[in-house]
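To whoever picks this up:

The nightly regression suite flagged RNA methyltransferase, TrmA family as changed. Nothing in the input moved, so I suspect the structure step. Input below, exactly as stored in the fixture:
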Amino acid sequence: MEQVKIPGKNEVVPITIEDIGADGEGIGKVHGFTLFVKDAVVGDELLVKVMKTKKTYGYARIEQIVTPSPYRVNPRCEIASKCGGCQIQQLSYEEQLRYKQNKVLNCLKRIGGIENPPMEPIVGMENPYYYRNKAQFPVGKRTDGEVVIGFYAGRTHSIIDTAKCHIGDESTEPLIACIRNFLKQENISIYDEESHQGLVRHILLRVGFTTKELMICVVINGKELPASDKLIKQILACPNLPKDFRVTSICLNKNTKKTNVILGEEIIPLYGPTYITDYIGDIKYQISPLSFYQVNPVQTKKLYELALDYTDLTGNELVWDLYCGIGTISLFLAQKAKMVYGVEIIPQAIEDAKSNAKLNDINNAEFFVGAAEEVLPKQYQLSGGKIYADVIVVDPPRKGCDESLLETIVAMEPKRIVYVSCDPATLARDLKYLIEHGYDLKKVRPVDQFPHSVHVESVTLLTRRNEL
Ligand code: SAH
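Regenerated output under the current build:
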């Protein structure tokens, strides 16, 4: 065996990239020592500079691409390597999809202990650009006093001064240009994270892809924006917006806390309602600055249709939709179910869910505020084990489901469980539990909600074993 030799800091060494890590970085070996290389692609032959070493691995940066991998493409975005938004723009989209498919497969095998997972092919995008319906821009000041609006550089709070984003929406650049002019013209004070002084912190933009409605929300460390009437006028006259798009909502969000959390709780209207409207399929949703709403509407429709397909509803079923957000999946399923019960921890989201049900004349959906792992076991106990579900859908955040929730789900014996997941590792852990407690894993289908990032969603179907 080759003797492992730890390279020195700043040493430049040749390397061939053999694997891809959880954060999209390339992985290769030099004299048996593993190096993680940012922006490297499997198959690249590189010269890399060693930045930092630990006992068994280290980090390096590309100095020179000696022979590029056949999977390497030129990122469309000039700041792809600096920006914290995307991680794998340099990988061809086809390879990105293969990577994500394998990521899910490997988690199911390794963490879930599932030998031969019933994987369906990943659902990719036809055009994996300009897909996001939401953007949050930090606002800051350069040392020379110039206003900067843009994106955080990876893992830092230094702002790259640009609104050009190839995964964002095409209306963002002209709108940010307008807001930038206004801030300069009126000499509006800009928030400083260190001193907690200054007014404007962030700009949040949302767009309804189907309605072409645009929202602008200015996050401020205070309760008033000086000259806001001028801002409204300038935004409404904003040139170069894509055809038919129009600003229908302008508001402020008050965030006076010293925190990294972008939004505060209070919304102050400036122009129009404090929400925009959008459709997923036939269902209409009102989206406020604080609402959780999936950021890729094209893929969300495919994700929900897949979830609906896996539920196999005929119109007679009782369905629980846990972690329901603003009721997006619940209302989608209510079209085909007898009754849907949604559970979500954020009260405002449940308010939105209820008003979205009304907005669509949907009367067979009911919503509960609370933690899924508390609400469901409690309801189950209160009913003396009588509440019933034909189908349970879960769509938890990255940390997955609490075991106490899985326990109740198993006790309720639904015929089908549909698990929508944004983290294959916790999905695999939870599937292991469900498989060990009476469920068969039928299908797992990844969906690419976030092209050019390392994130992957998936929809999974489990059925109850003794039903067969
Ligand atoms: N199904 C929705 C939202 C999914 S995101 C959609 O597709 O839009 C996950 C949601 O779970 C978020 O809305 C979050 O607020 C909520 N959540 C987080 N922890 C929770 C818990 N313990 N119980 C219930 N909901 C929770």
